[in-house]
Amino acid sequence: MGALSSIPAEFLSKGGSVGALLRAHDWSASALGQPDDWTPSLKTTVGLLLRAKAQIVLFWGPDFIALYNDAYAPTIGGKHPRALGRPARENWAELWEDLEPLLNGVRDTGKSFFAKDRRFYIERHGYGETVYFDVSYSAVPDTDNSVAGVLCIVSETTERVRAVAALRESEVRLRELNETLEQRITERTRELDHAHEALRQAQKMEAVGQLTGGIAHDFNNLLQGIAGSFDLVRRNPDDPDRVRRWSEAGLKAAERGARLTAQLLAFSRTQKLEIRSLDISNTVAGFAEMLHRSIGTTIRIHMDLQTDHEYVLGDQVQLEMVVLNLALNARDAMPAGGDLIIATRLRQIAQDAELPDGKYVELSITDNGAGMPVEVIERAFEPFFTTKEIGKGTGLGLSQVYGAVRQSGGSVRIESEIGKGTIVRLLLRSAEPTSAQMGQHAPQRRTQGITATILVVDDDPDVRSFLSETLFALGYDSIIREDGASALAELDRTDPNAMIIDFAMPGMNGAEVARRVRELRPDLPIIFASGYAETAAVRAVMGRQSRLLHKPFKIRELQSALYDLLVVPRDTQGLDPRRARG
Fold first, then answer.
1. DSSP 20-31
2. CB neighbours of residue 574 within 10 Å
3. Residues 152, 237: one domain?
């Protein structure tokens, strides 16, 4: 700006910070000359604009020298203060091709130019941008009535224009969305189903993850009980009473291990829901050990099951997941520990808004934790609604509880009071047991006097040895083979009465072997023995003359399956069950 002018220029004295800059400016080289020598028109106009609160810039003379006020200075960003008192083309170079014709038009014609939301391209913050202004350009006459300058009153509207444009774009998108709403809903629904299934599986694995800390410890204890019992039997084989006691202890440890692996396999399976009759008390009681491992030692679990031999409709894995989810929620509501009560009762439902009249079993999960306010209870079953902090829950737990119970024809009710705890009541439709389930409570059937030959296929030598000894003890002859190819070759030579087929075998799995057997002997009874969760491959070849045993199975379970497949059909047809084949 140079040294202070020797001219007082009093009309600039009340012009704010820009007025002070104008007084300090070195005007010796300017075409305008010293401010006190400016024409009265120029002095009057500058004095007025400096005091104005509106954004005003004056372009004066043939070079359109820029003079503006404090309100206008922020509009040009980094151009201020170098643009002050300089020809416009120097600092508005990027838009000069647009601006110059407007200024020339006003100066040459004397007519005002007015526009709303006028578009300009300007570089004011170190980068180029498109901006918008309401502008009013007016001619300023000099002493001789010629047009000497252009007074520009402006108001930036960039933010409003952008907001309106964004709104219009949103309206266009909304209109497009409405036009294709049905198609989009279908597509999105297909994507909420896949996502929901993925999250459901993730929750399963998360639940398994909560168990893994104690699993190794539990299995080591189980193995210790089994190995220790057999070691004692080996050391003292001639003491029948103690051998019997040690054998019982080993069997109980093996049964606990079987239950644990069955539950873990059930958690990891991805097959569709299998709604069937479930013994409610046995299902819940069998899940107790896993609940203890999941919720920790600070929570005391009390079982109050008063529904012996009562059956409900449901999917066993889903029901176990429901109980686990509710137990974990109860644990979180009792951070300092507490009591969890799991109870079952028979209920008669009548005139319910959600459920048909009839017999139901109520499975309730009660805690004495923090409780829930009414507004949380009202939203508890909404997908993705959670009161837990980020990373502590997906918000799908209770929605899955509700969905699983509703798919089985039941409902869920929540009662809670702040500071006193929560009761979640699952109302499950009562069901009749299947004939197989009824048989579980019947006296053990015997196969004395039955002669039949069983073809066994299993790749594990220990399992083959066990099956051979067991079948002999049950009164059956056996043919033992280690793979599918040799078993099929044996089937060409002999005529067995039934087959026991392992599922997971190298080369040809059990399902493939069974498919070939069905081609050769469509009516041959088959028992599948598998250490895996039930698979679609096995289900595809299962028929009326098939049974599935999950390893490890008990001898009486094998005996019962053989009885169903070999003895019952013969009795029904009036055949002699003692008649041997092969």
1. HHHHHS--TTST
2. 6
3. no
